[in-house]
Design goal:
Layout (H helix, E strand, L loop, with lengths): L4 E5 L1 E7 L2 E8 L2 H9 L3 E5 L5 H9 L3 E4 L23 H17 L3 E4 L1 H9 L4 E2 L23 E5 L4 H6 L2 E4 L6 E2 L6 E7 L4 E6 L5 E4 L11 H12 L3
Parallel strand pairs: 1-4, 1-5, 5-6, 6-13
Antiparallel strand pairs: 2-3, 7-10, 8-9, 8-11, 11-12, 12-13
Helix pairs in contact: 2-3, 3-4
Protein name: Gamma-glutamyl-gamma-aminobutyrate hydrolase family protein
Pfam family, one: Peptidase_C26
GO molecular function: hydrolase activity
């Protein structure tokens, strides 16, 4: 089968440097790339573009795609307006994520969505989001942690008969860096994991090529938690 080339979706950052005016920088966090390499894949950063034909050519170059974390998705995409506690939105990233998903669909390429990546998958396929978890009745866990990135802050329960269950078992400890979460699950998908306060922590498609998403950041945990490394290993080497 050969070594898998894994496309890693980039994001945009405004960068300032003394002597230069501010400019946009396209980047991907190093830990995504290291996690792919640790599990035998070759990471390839996919730069954001507004041209769908170029997006599709990018996806042709890779075997699978990881949609990374980032800022909030524009609520217009799921039929809502931004509430007071909604965060920063980035139209170029929204558009690019959705074009990546469309290209993967047309080219039959598997997807792993992490944090925002999970939310992009859910919204693209018709699901909805909670714009601010603390506003949801019954929420009591720390979903936007103040501890170091690799530290687990709450547990998740993992549903049987899911890919995530085959990787992690029935329970896992996870970190948490999000204030939004899946509300209505997209048609054709099922919940793979939830937290004790009911926040959806994982989804995956019911049939066809692998499309799976996790709400936490395993790329920030894999060096200290072997089970988090197993997520990347299974996605890169096992699932088609």
């Amino acid at each position: 089968m050969g070594v898998k080339i894994i496309g890693v979706v980039s994001s945009i950052q405004m960068h300032s440097q003394e002597g230069f005016s501010s400019y946009e920088r396209i980047f991907a966090n190093k830990d995504y790339l290291q996690a792919v390499e640790e599990c035998g894949g070759i990471p390839l950063i996919l730069p954001i573009t507004e041209d769908y034909l170029k997006v599709k050519e990018q996806v042709k170059l890779v075997d699978k795609v990881i949609i990374t974390g980032g800022v909030d998705i524009n609520p217009f995409y799921y039929g809502e307006e931004s509430i007071f506690n909604n965060g920063t939105i980035m139209p170029a990233r929204d558009s690019y994520d959705f074009m990546i998903i469309k290209a993967c669909e047309e080219l039959n390429k598997p997807i792993l969505g992490i944090c925002r990546g999970l939310q992009s998958i859910n919204v693209y396929y018709g699901g909805t989001l909670y714009q601010h978890i603390p506003d949801v009745k019954g929420n009591h866990l720390q979903h936007s942690q103040r501890s170091d990135y690799h530290v687990a802050v709450h547990k998740i329960r993992i549903n049987e008969n899911t890919k995530l269950h085959s990787i992690l078992g029935k329970e896992a400890e996870v970190n948490s860096f999000h204030h939004q979460a899946v509300k209505g699950v997209a048609k054709g998908f099922k919940i793979s994991a939830v937290s004790s306060d009911g926040v959806i922590e994982g989804i995956e498609n019911i049939e066809g090529r692998t499309i799976m998403g996790v709400q936490w950041h395993p790329e920030k945990m894999y060096l200290k938690y072997e089970n988090m490394k197993n997520i990347f290993n299974a996605f890169i080497n096992d699932y088609e």
